[in-house]
C-alpha cells in the first residue's frame, strides 16, 4: 500500500514539475511584444514536426562537417573518459555500499524519471501545453527536447548493444565487454537514464536567464544518473559519457534552430552555460561557465 502511495506521489510530483516549467517559460514571454500567431494548431504541429525532423537530420550529419575544434573536443572527452575509467570499479563499489542508506523515494524518482514512459509523457505534456496555448518558446523548447531525445536515444540504444559492456554488481569488472550482445547484463554503456534526463534538463535549462533556475533544473536532472550509480546499474563513465552525449547533441540542435531562424530568436536566452571538461594533476571535472 505504501508503494502505491509513493508511485502516486511521484506521478503528482512530475505533473507539478511540468506545470511549473510551463508556467515559468510562459511568464518569460509576457513582457515581449509579439504578434499573436494566426496559424492553426494543426499548421503549428506540422511546422514543429518538420523542424524536429530537420534537427535530427542535422545532428546526425554534423560529424561529416566537423572542424579541428570539434575533433579537439572529441579527443578531450575521450581522454577524460579514459582517465575516469581507471576508478570505475572502486567508485561503483563505493556507490553500491551507500545504497542501503539512500532514501527509497530518491531511488524511485530517479528510476521513474529516467524511464522512457515517464519521460515521453512529460515531453508530450510540455509540448501539448505549448501547442494549445500557441506559446512559441514552449514549442521551441519541446522541439529541442524531442529531436535531441530521438538522436541521443538512438545513439545510446545502438551503443549498448554494440559495446556490450558489463554492468556492475554482477561479478564482472568494468573492462569486460561482449560486443553486439543481447544480454541485459551487458548493456551498461552508456546510461540510458542519464541520456534522457540530462537531455531534458539541459534543453530546459538553456531557456532560463536566472542562474538559480538553471541550477534547480540541473539538480533535478541529476537525480536519475546518481540513482543509477547507487543501484549498481552503471559505471561512473557510463553516466559521465551519457551526460556528455546529451550536452553535445542539445547544443548542436539548439544552435541549428537558432541559425535557421526556425523560431523567434528574441526568445532565446542571452545567457547560457558553457561546459568544459577540465582535468589537472589527479583531478577530473566538468566546469560550467555562466
From TrEMBL:
Residues 140-254 form the Phosphatidic acid phosphatase type 2/haloperoxidase domain. It comes from the Bacteria. It holds the Pfam family PAP2. Signal peptide: none annotated. This is Phosphatase PAP2 family protein.
